[in-house]
Amino acid sequence: MCLDIDDTLIDFTSAGKRALSLLIGRGDLWPLWERITDWHVARVVAGEIDYASMHQRRTQCFLAEIGIVLEAEDVARFECRRKEVLRTSWRLFDDVLPCLEWLRAADVLIAAVTNASGAHQRAKLADLGLTRFFDHVAIAGEVGAAKPDPVMFHSVCAVLDCDPSEAAHVGDKLHTDAVGARDAGLEGVWLDRTGGDTAVPEGVHVIGGLDELPQLLVSEFARIGVPAQR
């Protein structure tokens, strides 16, 4: 079982918005931050820059976009403060621990699969007591590919010694997570916590919370090794 981290296990968006709003004094800039971050993360995955440089350049670019031009030292201080606020703001969704405990009790191998920075993701998992649940943590910048690239999903299957058809991936992004996993030969599960009206592509499963995952696994994915109900 592969699980995305941000906004699947950890309420990343709420924490990120809170930190940015506190530092900038505005609550409407999150979409711009996400777009700039995605562009810079793509450069990390392509091997053009490392994560540390990405954080600095991303933040400098974002600030410049909203008319704030700072020296490198001031950008570094801004980024350091943002990370401090974030680290005190991480929260698990209520359905996370029961789901992970069920998967572990069922002897399902579990991997965290993320496009974000390895150091920060591992710190989050450790801070929130999740490290013990995972057999593997796959980081896009370390793999050299990012979701939805099949290479990302196949690398996890190789580490866990399973065929893609024997694995499932759950994430909050419909195309990056669920469709990407489906196209890579895994079962793709979209975690739609908001319950919108988005059209769901064929072959993608939808759950409204991780509390629905055990039933889906038992009823639909017996081949990945989850025991059937008796």
UniProtKB/TrEMBL annotation:
Question: What keywords sit in the KW lines?
Answer: Hydrolase, Magnesium
Q: Which GO terms describe its molecular function?
A: hydrolase activity
Q: Which SUPFAM superfamilies match?
A: HAD-like
Known cofactor(s): Mg(2+)
Q: Which Gene3D superfamilies does this one have?
A: HAD superfamily/HAD-like, Haloacid dehalogenase hydrolase-like domain
List, alphabetically, the Pfam families matched. Answer: Hydrolase
Record's protein name: HAD family hydrolase
Record lineage: Bacteria, Bacillati, Actinomycetota, Actinomycetes, Pseudonocardiales
